């Protein structure tokens, strides 16, 4: 071992290892940027250090609607229990002040006729049961009001009003939680990826949107915003700078008829923030395109909003969505299994600005794609021709191997007969 180590000097070994490490490319993953809008439409935003918490209690109904179901149910259950216990204490105090708890009033030999405020209320348990019967209007008939105590009548009126308010808030909150607008947005779907391709001689940013329900979204409109971090000439850093970009729609109102999945197109022109971005620059861009679909639900009349976003890694350059709407037996059928499928098409890799300055780039790209398509067709035809020739040659060899030679049979009389099998 000592002799082997002395063959190569140690300094040469260290130099070789350092040279190998320098040759190896060190690939460092770019830190993943946080999305402003998640793919399911949720806002990726955390509110911290809110000092004015009392503003949430000023709008208590919206606060209850925004809470989770378990929290809402716990609050309503505790509201009912607290109201029942509070009024049970009031009924017990009314009975105690009137003397209904005195055992002497229960003696049937007592000559004086005693009329209690509430019949059969002799303890706190009976007062609690009577409070439940009053508020939920059960009325079993064992306990009832009398005309003896005006204070008891006032407590009865007050408990009925409080019970109606709690019931109204509970029913309204449950209805609003079950019919929230974002529930309808669950069936509005967007393509997982967006594409950039040539349409009508212009580079366009496109994505697909669809509605899974038969009930339509009335007056549906689509808006696109680009969110990116920018710095003003004065040195001010804007972490979330929102820029609206136009949507290519022949209708001036920008409304869409979402009866079937549609491909929403944005023409990359001089007004677009994507005007100076090429295919090679797209992966290096720190931008996020937010898509907002708004409309009125046909069945409920509630305005709903569906959102999604596309980052640079989710935009495919030189792709196009495959068609998914076909006519079958007089009915238009939509194949949602191909909703996000794309195919590669010919598209220049330059930016829209370079394409406007040099229109010949598009013509050259289309010519190259046409030549490559023809070459692929020729190769395919030649391969088919070669395969057919090979198949015919193999069939001939097989048939020649199946030919049986003639066999002569000699009869006992000595005559020869030839037969073929």
From TrEMBL:
One GO location term (cellular component): plasma membrane
InterPro entries per UniProt: Ig_E-set, IRK_C, K_chnl_inward-rec_Kir, K_chnl_inward-rec_Kir6.1, K_chnl_inward-rec_Kir_cyto, Kir_TM
Keyword Ligase carried by entry: no
UniProt key word Glycosyltransferase: no
Transmembrane domains' residue ranges: 73-94, 151-175
BP terms from Gene Ontology: potassium ion import across plasma membrane; regulation of monoatomic ion transmembrane transport
Any coiled-coil regions, as ranges: none
Subcellular location: Membrane
Pfam families: IRK, IRK_C
Chain positions of site Role in the control of polyamine-mediated channel gating and in the blocking by intracellular magnesium: 167
Keywords: Ion channel, Ion transport, Membrane, Phosphoprotein, Potassium, Potassium transport, Transmembrane, Transmembrane helix, Transport, Voltage-gated channel
Family named by the database record: Belongs to the inward rectifier-type potassium channel (TC 1.A.2.1) family.
Protein name: KCNJ8 protein
């Amino acid at each position: 071992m000592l002799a082997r180590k002395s063959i190569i000097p140690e300094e040469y070994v260290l130099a070789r290892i350092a040279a190998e490490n320098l040759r190896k490319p060190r690939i460092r993953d770019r830190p993943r940027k946080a999305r402003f809008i998640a793919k399911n439409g949720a806002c990726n935003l955390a509110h911290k250090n809110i000092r004015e918490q009392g503003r949430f209690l000023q709008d208590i109904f919206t606060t209850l609607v925004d809470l989770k179901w378990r929290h809402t149910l716990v609050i309503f259950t505790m509201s009912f229990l607290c109201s029942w216990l509070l009024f049970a204490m009031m009924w017990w105090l009314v009975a105690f002040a009137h003397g209904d708890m005195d055992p002497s009033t229960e003696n049937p030999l007592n000559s004086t006729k005693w009329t209690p405020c509430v019949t059969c209320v002799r303890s706190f348990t009976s007062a609690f049961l009577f409070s439940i019967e009053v508020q939920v209007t059960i009325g079993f008939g064992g306990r009832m009001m009398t005309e003896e105590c005006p204070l008891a009548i006032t407590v009865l009126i007050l408990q009925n009003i409080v019970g109606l308010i709690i019931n109204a808030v509970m029913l309204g909150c449950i209805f609003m939680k079950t019919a929230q607008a974002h529930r309808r947005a669950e069936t509005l779907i967007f393509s997982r990826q967006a594409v950039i391709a040539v349409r009508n001689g212009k580079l366009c940013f496109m994505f697909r949107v669809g509605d899974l329900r038969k009930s339509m979204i009335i007056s549906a409109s689509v808006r696109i915003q680009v969110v990116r971090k920018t710095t003003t000439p004065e040195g001010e850093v804007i972490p979330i700078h929102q820029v609206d970009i136009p949507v290519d729609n022949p209708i001036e109102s920008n409304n869409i008829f979402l009866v079937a999945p549609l491909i929403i197109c944005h023409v990359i022109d001089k007004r677009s923030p994507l005007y100076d971005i090429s295919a090679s620059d797209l992966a290096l861009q720190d931008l996020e395109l937010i898509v907002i679909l708004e409309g009125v639900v046909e069945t409920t009349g509630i305005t709903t909003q569906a959102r999604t976003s596309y980052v640079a890694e989710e935009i495919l350059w030189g792709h196009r969505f495959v068609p998914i709407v076909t006519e079958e037996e007089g009915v238009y059928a939509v194949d949602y299994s191909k909703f996000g499928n794309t195919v590669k098409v010919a598209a220049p890799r330059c930016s829209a600005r370079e394409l406007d300055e040099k229109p010949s780039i598009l013509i050259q790209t289309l010519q190259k794609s046409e030549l490559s398509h023809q070459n692929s067709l020729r190769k395919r035809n030649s391969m088919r021709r070669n395969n057919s020739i090979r198949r015919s040659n193999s069939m001939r060899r097989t048939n020649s191997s199946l030919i049986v030679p003639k066999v002569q049979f000699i009869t006992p009389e000595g005559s020869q007969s030839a037969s073929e099998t």
